[in-house]
Amino acid sequence: MTFYVGFSGPFLGSHEGVIADVTYAFVLFGASITFLIEWVLLGIDAWITLAKASCVFGL
Predict the structure, then answer these.
(1) Does the pTM of the predicted model rise above 0.90?
(2) Any idea which UniProt keywords this protein has (predicted)?
């Protein structure tokens, strides 16, 4: 994808390069957002597990 954007110019047409660039950015952005959400959910899950464990052990 980056190569395609890099070589876009008079031959491929600038519009195609811009579209590819934007698509690539959205893919990266979407992946990072999904990654963050998964980490947040894992964190919440861990806190709930700790809370349950502390209730069981009476801490």
Answers:
(1) no
(2) Membrane, Transmembrane, Transmembrane helix
